[in-house]
Design a protein that fits this description.
mainly alpha; two-stranded antiparallel sheet; 14 helices; 2 strands
Length: 414
């Protein structure tokens, strides 16, 4: 009797488990489709959980407050995969399908180009990132040129009131401080939104191209002999395109901000600001030289990496022959020689990065010394004015961010 009851209980638990699995499986309607040799699982929209970003309100998206829950769970160690759901528009299958449709349209033209297909797929989001960058440039010039100078004048006039007008009212200081705080807050929002949007576009570009390369590799005959090229395309070229999308807006924003700063300085101190133009021209020449050198090293590095991967692939394919004739040392020396060439190129790039950092952080004080020396030693030998000095120093410091990313933008554009 006991054995019979145990068997009945096992059957009951087995049936209940099967019903649970069947109910969960029916909720996930999987439609198997064969596309270009790939098996794609299309889940129903009802089973896909919306991401935190999609559930957030516009203010939370603007300030990235929707990430607070993820960071809190990550800090407590309770973060799960369900908390890191991807946006529907960012999923690889949707991004790749959109790019494939635009690429098919390009193939029907006389001169199909990858750039046009990418712009047709992700150009709108890329332009939105550019608008955020333009707003950041306008606000940073406004904060440095107007608010800092006006606040300094307010403090000076409050400490030593002019004889003709007297001390300014206190509400003016509160208004200037509040507007300056709001401007700085908007600066942070614009910069972070620009970085997030540009990085999002770069990830989409990389994901769509990796998917297309993988699908193409499934249709190419004798793909075993081209594994090195395929791996290099996925690991190097797709990543470079993502970096280009991330830093592209610094390519036009840096020179534009430098021109705006020179104009602001000319309006303050006149022709004495022309010394800053010479220093900025030297800086731009150095930056473009570093960018061109990095691009050249990148091309050399990619070629060397391809050769190394090809040698390793060929040696692994013919490993029996290598072992039979005891060619291990020769192949190892060949791979080591290619690796040494790669390390030499990487060391050169590190040296160029150091020169770039030195030029970026050394330019603001150099410009300040040149401008102030020109101001002092040029007739009619005017005295320093505090509002001009602090305003110009702030303007010079704003050049550090765009100038530091300019070589990366040149490398990504190439």
């Amino acid at each position: 009797a006991d054995s019979f009851s145990r068997i009945r209980r096992r059957q009951y638990h087995r049936l209940s488990f099967q019903k649970t699995v069947a109910s969960q499986t029916s909720a996930m309607t999987e439609k198997m489709k064969h596309q270009d040799g790939l098996v794609v699982v299309d889940l129903s929209k009802s089973t896909i959980q919306r991401s935190r970003f999609e559930r957030a309100n516009p203010l939370s998206r603007l300030t990235f407050f929707w990430m607070s829950g993820i960071m809190s769970k990550g800090y407590s160690g309770k973060l799960t995969e369900d908390d890191l759901q991807l946006n529907q528009c960012d999923r690889a299958e949707k991004v790749a399908a959109e790019f494939n449709a635009n690429w098919e349209k390009q193939l029907k033209t006389e001169k199909p180009t990858l750039r046009k297909a990418l712009f047709a797929s992700f150009g709108g989001q890329f332009l939105i990132a550019g608008l955020w960058k333009a707003m950041w440039a306008i606000l940073v010039i406004l904060a440095a040129f107007f608010f800092i100078r006006q606040i300094f004048v307010f403090v000076r006039d409050t400490a030593t009131p002019p004889n003709d007008t007297g001390a300014p009212p206190k509400w003016k200081g509160w208004v200037l401080s509040s507007c300056f705080f709001l401007c700085c807050w908007l600066l942070c929002v614009c910069l972070q939104q620009m970085s997030a949007k540009a990085l999002q576009v770069g990830i989409k570009v990389r994901g769509s191209l990796m998917t297309c390369i993988y699908r193409k590799s499934l249709r190419v005959p004798n793909v075993g002999t081209e594994v090195g090229d395929i791996v290099s395309l996925i690991s190097n070229d797709c990543a470079r395109l993502m970096d280009g999308c991330t830093y592209f807006h610094y390519l036009w924003a840096g020179p534009a901000e430098a021109i705006a700063i020179v104009i602001c300085m000319i309006t303050m101190i006149g022709s004495r600001a022309l010394g800053a133009v010479g220093v900025l021209l030297v800086l731009f020449i150095i930056q473009f030289f570093i960018g061109a050198k990095v691009v050249k090293n990148r091309a050399m590095g990619i070629a060397t990496t391809d050769q190394r991967v090809q040698v390793v692939t060929e040696s692994l394919v013919a490993i029996k022959t290598v072992k039979m004739y005891a060619w291990e040392k020769q192949f190892a020396d060949l791979v080591a020689r290619f690796r040494e060439q790669e390390l030499t190129i990487l060391r050169g790039n590190s040296s160029l990065k150091s020169i770039n950092v030195l030029s970026v952080f050394g330019t603001p004080p150099t410009i300040a010394v040149v401008v102030f020396a020109t101001w002092i030693f040029s007739p009619p030998y005017p005295k320093f004015k505090g509002e001009y000095v602090f305003t110009m120093l702030t303007l010079f410091n704003t050049l550090r961010l765009p100038m530091s990313f300019l070589p990366k933008a040149i490398k990504g554009l190439a």
